[in-house]
Amino acid sequence: MPWVGQSLADDERFANHQARGRNQAECDAVVAEWTSGLAADDIVEQLAEAGVPAGLTYKASDMLRDEHFKAREAITRVEDPEIGPIAMQNVFPKLSASPGGVERTGPKLGEHTDAVLAEWLGYDVETIAALKAANVL
């Protein structure tokens, strides 16, 4: 089935955001019928040719294989002390003068609690110990 975008754009049921909302189930059915026999790449290509901004929705495994993600260094690998190397999203946007980077995974639960209580709230060692003894922390 060829791309039906122009005929949909001329259809009053789908002419604007409110109309598409009122007729969402019907719109979804038309799009589902059109896309059901096409590969995702073909859908994106047809939409691009028609001037419709579109892109693929990736699973994590897709991102790890995608050449564009690799070229942009969108995925980085960092060492986690408990599970070893892990792939994760890199800094975005990547600025030319200050590109940034990911140096580590997040802290363990409670890893910085003592420091926050001491440095930010002014708690002394005895107060923190008392909170721990009372199972507050």
TrEMBL record:
Keywords: Transferase. The keyword Transferase applies. One of its GO terms (molecular function) is transferase activity. Pfam families: CoA_transf_3 (PF02515). This is CoA transferase. It comes from Jiella pelagia.
